[in-house]
Amino acid sequence: MAAVAVGTRALAGSGRPLLWGGGCRRLWALPAGLAAAAAAASPPAGASSRSGALSPFDRRLKRKQKNWAALQAEPGKCDYLREEVGGRIADRVFDIPRTFPLALDVGSGRGYIAQHLTKDTVEKLIQVDIAENALKNAVESEIPTVSVVADEESLPFKEDTFDLVVSSLSLHWVNDLPRAFREIHQVLKPDGVFIGAMFGGDTLYELRCSLQLAELEREGGFSPHVSPFTAVSDLGHLLSRAGFNTLTVDTDEIQVNYPGLFEVMEDLQGMGESNCSWNRKPLLHRETMLAAAAIYREMYGNSDGSVPATFQIFYMIGWKFHESQAKPAQRGSATVSFGDLSKLGGFVSKEKK
């Protein structure tokens, strides 16, 4: 599946080139994969009563998908994206000049953040995930780790426990994101920090558009491929409501080149990122898939025959309040007016003369 690099560095072990830029909109559920994990699991009895705007995802199915992906012969084959984002979160941890005695990784998977951390930064890490197979097959890390099987929607820890909480590409599958943020804030110690990453709304827009156009052409309509998740403009508000302060929210894009549509969907399945929405379409017809592959290549194909897949990432940083933290000055306490700044500019110009 290797693609030719286009003037950018490739993800470790993937052989697939990266391009990245900016942009932001809303989060959406990734399209279903081709093989057993996505196709075999139909909604259980009673699913309709639990589905809806307040609970769009089947968490039990998501656990099955992630467990299946972790048990593959080469589970690390499709981890290139998670490892890249995990490294970028670790970089943000390194930017904070302190040592964290106890940290928590929410939705850790196989430990994509832990492998990039050092003992000088994090002394001990608790890894939490709903998929026990992912925790059992965790990658090596130089820091001591403890694995806990638990749902990210209900953290089993006491208040004021952790100095640092991190989360990479997991919270976009949580049904109640405001509650998840509140629980993360609750388990943090005062002056603790949360650093997280989620998929953004422009993720896989090429695949989404190709599937919709193919379904319209072949079946006379298309199934919903977009889930009602938060926009990047709302993340700051949600974090603030959860109690976080000194917030930072930014976006990034990673573009990976693939041989075709089927390889994109195969790797999504290998990542454990198949669709788990209650209103998902269990199967796509063969003719629709072939049409979508042709549309994908025609609309977005590269000159070398590969096709790009764009992954938009939302990064967020929030702190739990502590008296020692810097506070904004009181209104009206400034000693220099904006009018004085214009005079200062004139003074600098005269000095240069």
Question: Care to give the gist of this entry?
Answer:
By secondary structure, the protein is of the alpha/beta class. The protein has helices spanning 36-39, 47-50, 59-70, 80-94, 132-136, 177-187, 205-219, 232-241, 261-270, 286-300, 338-352, and strands spanning 18-19, 103-106, 125-129, 145-149, 162-168, 188-199, 244-258, 307-320. The protein has an 8-stranded mixed β-sheet with strand order 1-7-8-6-5-2-3-4, sandwiched between helices.
Question: In words, what does this structure look like?
Answer:
GO terms for molecular function: oxidoreductase activity; S-adenosylmethionine-dependent methyltransferase activity. Pfam families: Methyltransf_11 (PF08241). Residues 104-195 form the Methyltransferase type domain. The N and C termini lie far apart (63 Å). β3, α5 and β4 form a beta-alpha-beta unit. The protein has a single domain (20-41, 55-320), classed as Rossmann fold, CATH 3.40.50.150. The protein has an eight-stranded mixed β-sheet with strand order 1-7-8-6-5-2-3-4, sandwiched between helices. Helices cover 33% and strands 18% of the residues. It has 353 residues and is α/β, with parallel strands linked by helices. It has eleven helices and eight strands. The chain has helices at 36-39, 47-50, 59-70, 80-94, 132-136, 177-187, 205-219, 232-241, 261-270, 286-300, 338-352, and strands at 18-19, 103-106, 125-129, 145-149, 162-168, 188-199, 244-258, 307-320. α7 (205-219) packs across α10 (286-300).
